[in-house]
Amino acid sequence: MSVVKNAGRALVMSAILSAPAFAQVPRVPEVPMVPMVPMVLPVIPPMPVIPDFEMPDLSGFEMPDLSGLGPMLADIDSMLAKIGPIGPGPMKLGPIGPGPLGFGPDGPGPLGLGSKIAGAFDEQRSREDEARQRADEEKQRAEEAKQREAERRQRIDESYQRGQESLERRAWARAADSFTRVIDAEGSTRVDAALYWKAYALDKLNQSADALATVQDLIKRFPQSRWISDAKALELQVRQNAGQAPRPQDESDEELKLLAIQGLQHSDPEQAVPMLEKILQGTASPQLKSRALFVLAQSNSPRARQVLTAAAKGASNPDVQRKAIQYLGVHGSTENRAILADIYASSSDVDIKRQILRSFMVAGDKTRMLQVAATEKVPELRQEAVRQLGPMGAREELWQMYQKESTPEVKRQILQSLFVSGDAAHLIDVANTEQNPELRRRAVQHLGTMGRTSTGEALVGIYAKEKDTDIKRSVINALFVQNNAESLVAIARKETDPAMKKEMVSKLSLMTRSKVAMDYLMEILNK
Questions:
Q1: Residue 109 gets which letter from DSSP?
Q2: Tens digit of each residue's pLDDT (9 = 90 or more) over 142-177
Q3: Euclidean distance between the first and final Cα of the chain, in Å?
């Protein structure tokens, strides 16, 4: 009972002590009540009644043949594979933008479908561009391979020619070195000839063992060579002279003998011709054999003509044959030209045929040269005929040939021949009308090496119409080669392309002796 009383006292005391605090709290005014607005619901019309759907009878329906859609479906599968897997969530299309199919390239949502489709198309175009680029690179590599092959053959021919010249100067060691380079060159077609002349030079150096080894190498490696008979004769001579030093007096005797034969040719040609024929069939030097052929070519003797014709047809080694063909061209009578035509028709040796074409040029036989240029099946020989028509001045014939020709390599050679013949007018036509950019550029290059008086104005006109940047640069280079500062300044003033203008200013800066060029450069600096 006392516990209850004590609790009651505590409550009363607490109420008394807290009373002043409650008296100090301000009274909050009452907020008037807002009357409730009744909600009016819209009247929803009743849903229309959908009739029961009846499945149509498909018993007579035949599925169309979709076998032809295989490639199309494969392409679609390939494209979907490139797009990638579709992410989770609802499809969200971005705003319509420049991407294919109207999908924004960066629209919201996890798909990014527009970007993926655009990427697939870009990848396809990129592959096509790469394929075209690879094709162009392969074509360029093929052209470079042809050029390297031509340069390789030219180096071999030059080494062989240097060896021949060294023989004529009696520089035996140098001759042997030149012929060794011909022998060691990859793909050389003159190994047998080089082996013969190397052995010849070694014999003159009194290196009999090396000379015999070289001759035997020739006989072993080339048993069917036309040098075999010469090689066997040389082998016999080397064996006879083994251990003996070279005798310069013998060479002098050969020279005196040839002079005596040449004198005898005028008084008794029937006696001189057999001696000359013996020289051609023996082991005489190239120089001595060449001079023997020269004497035969000057002779009016039927026997001399017979020996020369036999040599031209291949009765001796190929060097003698080429030299005989050359002399038939130098003395290019109607009969000699007919002999050359017969040899050309019957021979399959490209080098021999090339020498005949050069002899046609020396003899001025334009008719036969044009026939070869029009009908020859071997591209190398056809181009050689076209090349020789340039020095012969066959401008109109070359131009007619160019208009009918479809092979770019032959057309390039025709342009070269037009340049050699000085035909600026037709080169200008090519530069203005040819559809092939490479041929247009080649024509422009040729025009640049011709006189500025006849081509300068035409080059300025070509530049003004040309759209191809590389060809425009070729025009700039052509004008620079001509030292044609006036034309360069004229087109530079009108040029709006900064890169092309910079190209012209760069060329003009090198033309320090031209007042026109220097004045224009000062004009630029003063702006």
A1: S
A2: 878 888 888 888 889 899 999 999 998 889 999 999
A3: 119
